[in-house]
Specification:
The structure holds 2 protein chains of 2 kinds.
Chain A (H helix, E strand, L loop, with lengths): L13 H16 L4 H27 L10 H8 L24 E5 L7 H10 L5 E5 H6 L19 E3 L6 H16 L6 H5 L12 H11 L1 H6 L7
Parallel strand pairs in A: 1-2, 2-3
Helix pairs in contact in A: 2-6
Chain B lengths: L2 H9 L4 H7 L20 E5 L11 E7 L2 E8 L7 H6 L3 H9 L6 H16 L5 H29 L4 H21 L8 E2 L2 E2 L7 H23 L3 H7 L7 H7 L4 H5 L6 H4 L20 H24 L18 H4 L3 H12 L7 E9 L2 E9 L7 E5 L1 H5 L2 H6 L4 H11 L3 H5 L1
Antiparallel strand pairs in B: 1-2, 2-3, 4-5, 6-7, 7-8
The chains are: A mainly alpha, B mainly alpha.
């Protein structure tokens, strides 16, 4: 299957750019003043800088969940230790409750029995939340590649994959820094922007069918991707 | 309904274990205390599989009477990886990497017990130098495993800074592993018939330096912990279990030695030249949590002593057997010898064949008796690989230990048991 990745947040197209040019000229001439100027500044400067400030803060103060699965969990513990010292980047406050955490590091092999638990932990985390698949097993079932395991991509979205078996602490650190870069500089890199997944909604067990049916009628393109209604 | 569905329906009858497991829900149930005039009910609490104090993905169903634990049911299988089955589908020497990943804090032990079983079947003579190198790496591994145990257990008991000290020394050991084997964890250094490569120049001096420093470091940990009133109150006299009960449950390793039984396979059934070394077996007296803690602390010192002796007496000679049917020929021979090339090709494509038979090879792992059972049908792949993992057997003792103890002591006991879930579920 071919995967085509396009950036949804395209740079301003021709019209927008001309409007911006005209606005800037007005601004320089002094035509834009008072309320209009205020509005312009509000829309252009403050919001963007606020977004950047939030992204900067968010990327520098991640709380990973205390969640170890297998071998990789030992190497995940070493990134907190003195040599690599993840505290330099603000990732050191491991939280025992998923409700206080915003990063899930899948450190190890995920068995079919464990997958629903992992998914539930991820669902319990509050937005904005991120996940790192650490090691070969959680990305691709690794050396085992057998009946018992399931790769993380099959049941939850993953932001960063870190290769290795297990990855060195430095490799995990590299993944963490990539995640920080993604959050701070380029949100379009994440799966949220690509798939338009801005928010999480809670779906009760009996509502799923109705929501799927609604989505199918709303948009033909969506209907192509959605699973078919189960046959009676 | 097709025949396949019918077949599935008949197989789908649930086992008793599955039924028990599925019958568990999180709703509150009223359970009356035995006897008349009961005024309160028991509470069944689910702990795990995601709980920071279970040291992995262990799930415990705890029945509580107020704060007192009345019963524990461990539910395992959350990191079941099918390693035993995968090992059966690989040639003997290609099964070593997957076997190593079972108990992920004792990878040298896993590799050695598997190699040892295969060597027993093939009747391979392992050179003395290889045996000594194995001992050095296994004892370093034992210290490393105990360091991870100490750091995480102390964290559970509230001593944060121990974690950083323990991981400082652990990094030093992993540096040694990386220097000699190329990997920090899951090194695949042990081969059937010896070790993969000889140690590099300068390694012995670095290892010696570490082994000389380590006992002093253990004393430093002791200075931090042994006089700590909080730690002592949480460990001393908490959740003891006698030797008889432990033996009935099949518990081995530091847990058994803490109760006063000096059973250690390194002394009881020496393997891999352990009879050459002079070391002591630390034992406890009362079998409580403090003894479990103290035994492991002493074991780290004894392991350092073994490493020093092995480095001192490291014999010269080959690091792997000369049997070309089992061990790969040296690289330089491939350019000149046709026979070496044929052996190399045969080993890499098919692997070596092992005569029919079965072998069980027990060794003393960091957590107790670690044994590998291998049955061979004469082909180049094992017919059955089974591990007797100490964590799995020791876990049985949880309920007996924590009976009528406080739930806070359950956390301390679990920490002092040091189960590794990768080894339990495999």
């Amino acid at each position: 299957m071919e995967v085509i990745r396009t950036q949804l947040n395209k740079p301003a197209d021709g019209d927008d750019f001309r409007i911006q040019q005209r606005r800037s000229r007005d601004l320089l001439r002094g035509d834009l003043s008072d309320e209009e100027l205020e509005e312009y500044v509000q829309s252009k400067i403050i919001t963007t800088t606020l977004d950047k400030a939030v992204a900067w803060a968010r990327g520098n103060a991640m709380f990973p969940a205390t969640f170890g699965l297998a071998c990789c969990a030992i190497e995940m513990m070493s990134i907190v230790a003195a040599r690599v010292d993840v505290a330099r980047f603000g990732f050191e406050a491991f939280r025992a409750s998923p409700r206080q955490a915003d990063l899930l590091i899948l450190s190890g092999r995920i068995s079919i029995k464990m997958a629903p638990v992992v998914r539930r932990i991820y669902d319990q985390m509050l937005e904005p939340k991120y996940s790192i698949a650490m090691g070969a097993c959680s990305s691709s079932m690794g050396v085992f590649n057998n009946y018992a395991l399931v790769p993380a991509d099959k049941f939850m979205p993953v932001d960063i994959h870190v290769p290795g078996c297990p990855p060195r602490p430095e490799a995990l650190m590299h993944g963490i820094l990539k995640l920080r870069q993604q959050i701070q500089l380029d949100p379009a890199m994440s799966w949220r922007e690509r798939y338009g997944a801005g928010e999480t909604i809670e779906v009760m067990p009996d509502e799923g069918e109705r929501l799927l049916a609604e989505a199918r009628t709303e948009d033909d393109a969506v209907a192509m991707q959605l699973p078919e209604a189960p046959r009676a | 309904m097709s025949t396949v569905d019918k077949h599935f329906g008949s197989v789908g009858a649930k086992s008793a274990y599955r039924q028990m497991e599925e019958s568990i829900d999180l709703s509150s149930m009223e359970q009356h205390l035995p006897g008349d005039g009961a005024t309160h009910e028991l509470l069944t609490l689910n702990m795990g599989p995601h709980h920071p104090a279970t040291h992995g993905v262990l799930r415990l169903l705890v029945t509580l009477d107020g704060e007192i634990v009345r019963d524990i049911k461990p539910i395992i299988g959350y990191v079941h990886t099918g390693i035993e089955k995968t090992a059966e589908q690989k040639a003997y020497w290609k099964a070593i990497p997957v076997v190593e990943r079972m108990d992920y804090l004792a990878y040298f032990f896993n590799a050695y017990t598997f190699c040892g079983a295969v060597e027993t079947l093939t009747e391979t003579e392992v050179p003395k130098r290889a045996q000594y190198l194995r001992v050095i790496h296994m004892e370093l591994n034992r210290i490393m495993s105990h360091l991870v145990w100490l750091g995480t257990s102390a964290l559970d008991l509230g001593a944060m800074s121990m974690f950083w000290y323990c991981f400082r020394e652990r990094e030093a050991i992993l540096d040694l592993f990386e220097y000699s084997t190329g990997q920090r964890m899951h090194t695949r250094y042990f081969q059937v018939g010896g070790v993969m490569e000889d140690i590099p120049a300068g390694w012995a001096a670095k290892a010696k330096d570490f082994a000389q420093k380590m006992p002093g470091r253990v004393d430093q940990y002791g200075a931090l912990l042994n006089k700590n009133e909080i730690l002592l109150q949480r460990l001393r006299g908490v959740c003891p279990l006698g030797e008889d009960v432990l033996l009935e449950l099949g518990v081995t390793g530091p847990l058994l030695r803490a109760s006063g039984n000096p059973w250690d396979l390194r002394k009881a059934m020496p393997y891999c030249s352990y009879e050459d070394f002079d070391f002591k077996i630390p034992v406890g007296t009362s079998g409580d949590n403090y003894d479990r803690f103290a035994v492991r602390m002493q074991e780290m010192k004894e392991s350092s002593a073994i490493i020093l002796q092995a480095l001192e007496g490291l014999p010269e000679g080959p690091h792997i057997t000369d049997d070309r049917k089992i061990a790969l020929p040296p690289r330089h021979e491939l350019a000149t010898s046709m026979e070496a090339l044929i052996h190399h090709f045969k080993l890499v494509t098919e692997g070596f064949r092992v005569p029919e038979g079965e072998a069980y090879f027990p060794i003393e792992g960091p957590r107790g008796e670690l044994g590998c059972f291998v049955r061979s049908d004469g082909s180049s792949k094992p017919a059955r690989v089974h591990m007797r993992d100490p964590s799995f057997v020791n876990l049985q003792a949880t309920a007996a230990m924590c009976q009528d103890a406080y739930i806070a002591d359950l956390i301390a006991t679990l920490a002092m048991m040091d189960p590794v879930l990768g080894g339990i579920d495999r």
